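Form 7-S
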Amino acid sequence: MKLVGKILLGLAALVGFMLVRTVVLLPAGTPVTLKEPAVEQSTIDRVAARLSKAITYRTISWSYAQAPDAFAFNGFHKFLAETYPLAHQTMELEKVSEYSLMYRWPAAKPGDKQPIAFMAHIDVVPVPEYGLAKWTHAPFEGVIDDDGVLWGRGAMDDKAMLITLMEAAETLIADGFQPDRDIYFLFGHDEELGGANGAVVMADMLKSRNVELEWAVDEGSAMVQGVVPGVQSPMALISLGEKGFVTLRFSAEDEGGHSSAPKSYTAASLAARAGARVMDNPHPLEIDGFLEQFLLTVAPEMNFTSRFAAANMWLTRPLLTAGLANNSATAAFMHTTTAFTMMKSGIKPNILPQYGEAIVNYRVHPRDTVAGVVARAKEIIDDERVTVTQFGGKEATRMSSVDSEGYSMIAETVKEVFGDIPTAPTLTVQGTDGRHYYGVAKDVYRFMPFVFQPTDLKRIHGTDEAVDIVSLARQVGFFEALIKRAAE
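Output:
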């Protein structure tokens, strides 16, 4: 009985220690609301009208096999020059690979500060014919409805960021602002295809000129509300890096024949089984140092149970990992994801297929490698009848610093413009042009001054892409404040 008593006493002491640790380290935060900076109606109308016009230029990236539409891209270039005359008089502009734009806003006088850069992309993804009927308004008309919502492809990804950057520059120049360091605006034309002819070329040009950026900012993360489970307050997520990617084809061949006399397998079943095996054996989930930092930042906004788990990860990590894994959005940040996306085989129900293939797409976490992903897939399949073929492959980027000038300035500007909302580091699970500038910039961040609701995430590359014009105008104020903070 004495032993049992000691055990119970020890457990009580442990629980007490964990409770105190929770209260001390992660006290409950006060719910915060997003500050809504006042914006003059004339500014709202002006910025909205310009983005509306920008959307009408069908700067679509179809594929590298299909050349860009010269009429659309050159028309967009002319539109920028006519709309932002002060920026074009002040900045040095180079056209790269015909359609990408590299602006250099020179420092008023040489100093010790290294240059910084802001990125956006000119191109947009196509709108499938079968999806056109589902759009509230035609995707390339830039309609602004009576509720103050601007509809169209590029309203979120990524012409809004490009237009608000140019608006900020034009406004600052008109006010007499002169930067004390060089500022680059880097606008790629093929981001939606991977950036090979845009961002890659511009990054190489900067390298050849010995330009070293202190930091750079691109799209890829934003302010969110209601997206992180358990957190209702708005919060700013600043992405430090992005995942890599690789696609694998699992294919099998067989002699075929009549379906009335099948063997124990077919080419189709071999390929499908390979795809199913890698899906059923996902990469391990892990709360790494960056995700841990993120959880500790957002925990004060959560309920006590979640705060208790976050404050005591030395003990609760397995339970916390399992809980986060239940949500596909949070699980994606914890490991390399595996997606069985395509299957092809057979020509008729009563003919045994002679060929079958399964296509699986991986998004590679920074702690993994493309080679490691391929080797692991082969080991899991473990079938000499299945051929594994790799398509593409990009490693994940390194993670930028949270202790740098760039991260601090973005976070401080968020608080200045939008209020004292939580700010946390994160990882971008998609691809951006930002990945190509790591050889030029000390740190690359991804942040857009949007507020995304859960439903908004489905609009990117989807149906009814749209933006509220008041929030659009507020983005101009954010970029003005960030540029002044960094270069005044």
